[in-house]
User: What shape does this take?
Amino acid sequence: MSEAQKSNAKSNTTPDFTRRQLLWGAGSLALLGSAGCTQTTLSLPEMNIDPMPTNGIRPQISVDRNVTVPDVMYAAVQEGPYSLPAVPYQKIPAQFRRQVVVDPTGEQPGTIVVRLQERFLYLVQPGGDAIRYGVGIGKDGFLWSGRANIQYKKQWPRWTPPREMIQRKPELVKYQNGMEPGPQNPLGARALYIFKDGVDTGYRIHGSPEWWSIGQSMSSGCVRLINQDIIDLYSRVPGKATVVVG
Assistant: This one.
């Protein structure tokens, strides 16, 4: 090949490489643009999300303000005759506030996973994410674990203490026919009823006015959330959702 031919060959390869770079860059920009096209987009450090999971590079996540902004998540709530005060979230350890994380469970989207030792509840989302909520759990001797389903859900449920609880705490006998719904009701603003093989386990995932109990082991076996968190979870849980507690 002559020197002129070599020169021409070299000049012809350079534009191809440059075009590949430009195409790759344009594709990356398009991906980032599509990730932020709806709702509110926050940077990864602000969300405490690992930007490099084992399955590759993670694009920026787009989520709504109901799971990213504490002032919005834990604001006062008025629903009909019921009022919930704002939660002083600054007094709650940051890890127990509602947030989006990389899903650690491997379960199908729509599954609720409660990890008792961590005091976390995960609602698995499509695409490898999960919404994580801090929870309070039962004391030793009152815990339940297993795989079951949410048979049904209730807003502002009525609470009826089981007979065994009344025996332990006779002062609860006045509620043997049920306690009226309301902000001070032990089931809070919402309750999800756990059934296994069609049989009521007696355990619930529910709200609680005692926001300071989140992250602790002090209930009679149920999984409790901040009232504002159970309202959010309730709105997202599909019918007959699978529940994994362990």
The CA atoms of residues 184 and 209 lie 6 Å apart. The first strand starts at residue 40 and ends at 41.
